[in-house]
Fold:
Amino acid sequence: MTRQIKKRLAGLRRRLVRRDLDALLVTDEMNVRYLSGFTGDSSAVIVGRSDAIFITDARYTEQAAAECPGFDIVTRRSRMIGEIAGQAGSLGIESLGVEAHVLTLESGGRLRDELAPVKMVETTRLVEGLRERKSKQEVEAIRACIDASERCIEHIRSYLVPGIRERDIAAEMEYFVRGLGFDGMAFPPIVAFGPRGSLPHARVTDRRMAEGDAVLIDWGVAGRGYCSDLTRVFFHNKIPDRFRRIYQIVLEAQQRAIDRIGPGVSAQEVDAAARDYIARTGFGEQFGHGLGHGIGMEVHEAPSIGPNSEGELRRRMVFTVEPGIYLPGVGGVRIEDDVLVTSRGVKVLSDAPKRLNDMVITA
Ligand code: ZN
Ligand code: ZN
Structure:
């Protein structure tokens, strides 16, 4: 068992003690990976106060043994729920926590029946809570994805010429980052030409870039089990007047939010720093989404940074800061960077150019 895995299990066990649970059943695929190092699927982990059981099927026995040293590897011969109930029974425990946000109603009900007399206790996001704060190695892995993202966008600039399709840009990005040795894009990139930029989650289409189109690209890279998430907006030859103003507002809003970030600060307050500024410029209604979200093993994970967020920022959290203004029929501007909360405040991990004049592509 690596030091990293030992630390994670210890962190989870402290939470079990606090909640008076004897063990936790982990079935979310990413949480299983986080706790065990296993890179396959269809498996579950039971973490007790001192036991760590890994349940899989015959396809994965060999892989699990190699990837999860220190776990008792169990190859199930029957249904997963029956095996889980049997293992929990043999641990001699009274209560087993389950991930209520992951189990379906159907499997939860069946598990409850089969576990008896062991009591099933619903928990939510215990492991996700641990995952919020990144280790040094995790930050390094995210940084590597960010670096690749920045090389990718630098590469793609020269492709942004009238006539090219959104789809062509997305394909070239994928090809380029794979060439760098990464797994690929962390999610299908958004490449939105002209008015399509007002759709915060546009899918790429066959639309061809026209003279004067603004180009919004939201992209991330996946590799070594982690990912990045950035957004930039480019202009071809000149900046349309309407965009000049909203670009500066979004950039300023982002900076105000970044300036607020630090350990102990409420996530809501950081969101408000950007949101209130945008509202004062009269575009409040055009910023309809949260300010940011955690990134790590997944592109969207805890914490969320929005007007309804409850938590406080803590050291070693990594998340995005991505205010935007969207004008239907005209286009949109979103600027997204990835930040790390440090003991002193914040470190912006991404540094792809974003000053307005840097975003003009001349060709
Ligand atoms: Zn994004
Ligand atoms: Zn994002």
In short: The radius of gyration is 23 Å. The mean pLDDT is 96.
